[in-house]
Write a structure and sequence with these properties.
NAD(P)_dehydrat-like; binds NADP nicotinamide-adenine-dinucleotide phosphate; Rossmann fold; Epimerase_deHydtase; oxidoreductase; 4 strands; single chain; alpha/beta; oxidoreductase activity, acting on the CH-OH group of donors, NAD or NADP as acceptor
C-alpha cells in the first residue's frame, strides 16, 4: 500500500481500515486515503454522532467510505471492521490529560500491547 506519492496515485481497489476515523489524525488519514482512491473502512464509536459528519463530506466518501461502529474494547467489532482490509491505520486512542498515566493503560485497550493487536488483526 502506498499512501504518499503522486496525487494521481490510486488505491487499486484496496481497502484500508482507519480506527478512530473521526479523530484529528484519523480524519486526515481518511481524507488522504480517499484522495488516493482507496476504499476506507473507518471505525468510530458512534457513526450517527454529528462530530463525525465531516467524514461524509470528504471527496470520495459517498462512494468509498464506510463507517463502522467499534469501541476499542470490543474485539469482535474491531475484527469485523478490519477483516479483508489490505492495511490498518490504528489511530483510535483514549486521550488522558493525566501526565502520569498512559492512555491505553487507563482503560485496558486491546491495543495496549502488540500481541493483542496481532490477535485482533488475524
Ligand atoms: N490542531 C488541532 O486542531 C487539533 C485537533 C484535535 C487534536 N489535536 C491534537 O492532536 C492529538 C492527536 O489527535 P488524535 O487524533 O490522536 O486524538 P483525537 O482527535 O482525540 O482522536 C482520538 C480518537 O480516538 C477515539 N477513541 C477514543 N477512545 C476510544 C475507544 N475507547 N474506542 C474507540 N475509539 C476511541 C476517538 O473516538 P470518539 O470520537 O468516539 O471519541 C477519536 O476518534 C490530540 O491529542 C491533540 O493534541 C489537534
Amino acid at each position: 500500500m502506498t499512501v504518499g506519492g503522486e496525487a494521481t496515485a490510486t488505491g487499486n481497489g484496496q481497502t484500508v481500515c482507519v480506527t478512530g476515523a473521526g479523530g484529528y489524525i484519523g480524519s486526515w488519514i481518511v481524507k488522504l486515503l480517499l484522495e488516493k482512491g482507496y476504499a476506507v473502512r473507518g471505525t468510530v464509536r458512534n457513526p450517527d454522532d454529528a462530530k463525525n459528519a465531516h467524514l461524509r463530506g470528504l471527496a470520495g466518501a459517498a462512494e468509498r467510505l464506510v463507517l463502522c461502529k467499534a469501541d476499542l474494547l470490543d474485539g469482535d467489532a474491531l475484527r469485523a471492521a478490519i477483516a479483508g482490509c489490505h492495511g490498518v491505520f490504528h489511530t483510535a486512542s483514549p486521550i488522558t490529560d493525566d501526565p502520569g498515566g498512559t492512555a491505553c493503560g487507563c482503560v485496558g485497550s486491546p491495543f495496549s500491547d502488540g500481541r493483542r493487536l496481532v490477535k485482533v488483526v488475524r
